[in-house]
Amino acid sequence: MSTIFTCLTVTPTPRPLSFTSSLSSNPLRIPVFPRRVWDSRVLVRATVELGGGGGISRPGGVVESDKLPSDVRKLAMDAVDGCGGRVTIGDVASRAGLNLNQAQKALQALAADTDGFLEVSEEGDILYVFPKDYRSKLNAKSFRIKAEPFVEKLKAAVEYLIRVSFGTALIASIVIVYTTIIALVTSSRSDEDNRGRRGGRSYDSGLTFYFNPADLFWYWDPYYYRRRRMQTDDAKMNFIESVFSFVFGDGDPNQGIEEERWKLIGQYIASNGGVVAAEELAPYLDIDSKEGLKDDESYILPVLLRFDGQPEVDEEGNILYRFQSLQRTASRKSKRKEYVGRRWSEWVGGIEKFFQEKKWQFSKTSSSERAMVTGLGGLNLFGVIILGTLLKDMAVAPSSFIKFVTDIFPLLQIYAGSFFAIPLVRWFFIRNRNAQIEKRNEARQQCARVLDLPDTSLRQKLFSARDMAQKTVIGPDQIVYSTDKDLLEQEYEAREWDKKFRELERSD
């Protein structure tokens, strides 16, 4: 039997509310249900925020969605759209990969800002219902949401400015270095009477008039990294793109992959009735090796914490994990598939069999492009070394162009050295990171293979998980209360419910 060597925090089950709860202690006229109730305090708090039943408004017209992190808000809204605008907290958590607390806060804020309302089922489940135009309503209220696209563009432009400055400086450095070398060599051959003015006025005025380093930035492309991710690996780059790719690489290939990981895990659990074995989630988690997983299932703890899972023991003594919040849904789109006489690869359907990280690439440049960039970088480094030797033995006029080059020469040295130092450091970093990624990918793939052809004990464990699974779709016919109705209607329905509860109590 599997064991866990880490302490698991068990959330106490809510106490059933008494049938005799009176409306006098419930000023919001929210009925109290005799069956299992999911955190009725959430209903009361959200009703107040939405102004349910009593027409309560938020002081100062605060936009609650502005308090949410932008990524959490976007993921929650995508999940709401995917479910058709009628969701439970578990729906959003599983589809968006958010933890339950994030999903709950996001739904409350979005509903408060977009005239959404709550529904309560016969079992006490809370559903959030949004109008079709809730996005446009939110955009009309929130200045922050309106400004986000412009802020993102500005941020991308600033980040690109920093990167492109390093690349365009290569051309500027080569021009400055070799122009100065030519000036110094030419001036050294002039008459001895003019040695105090090495380089001559013609080098100062001519260079200033004809050459402006700012002209090198006419080809800036603030969407370079975004565009590079959209291109194929064999797409040809221009010269300046090759410089960027050689020095800084082509961005993180696993950007946003953690969000995708939690989406996969949430969808997997929800699609299988909210009860799974630890071995089923191993292909999606970070594990070093599949060895010892049967004896130590602590690797599943992050999932339990994120989706409020609880361990349960079946009749055979196997430890399974139940996620009650993901067992109840307002969407009819997801249907649980049974693991009966099927291979695991067929059973998981459209969900990926295991989570795979992408390896980092040093650069997407071709060998010829890389050779050209390396050659120009080497040419610049060689020029800086020669120029440093010449400047040591030269007397320079205070107002000359060469004096300016002398002042910025330490920067030229730093740039020439870092042009190769940065890629060298990146190469070691990428080599080490790819080794770790390959190790994790291989371990997850091995765990997936174990599920593809499970042995007798694992197969029995999976059968037990499917038997314990529950999936409840909450339809409109199961709704007994809604904050979308006016005060008189709520009061009438509340009295009817209280009357029914008292009748049930007397019959018991």
Automatic annotation (TrEMBL):
A GO cellular component entry from the record: chloroplast envelope
Keywords, sorted A to Z: Membrane, Transmembrane, Transmembrane helix
InterPro entries cross-referenced by the UniProt entry: At5g03900-like (IPR044200)
Transmembrane segments annotated in the record for this chain: 160-185, 371-391, 411-430
The protein's name in its UniProt record: Iron-sulfur cluster biosynthesis family protein
Species: Crotalaria pallida (Smooth rattlebox)
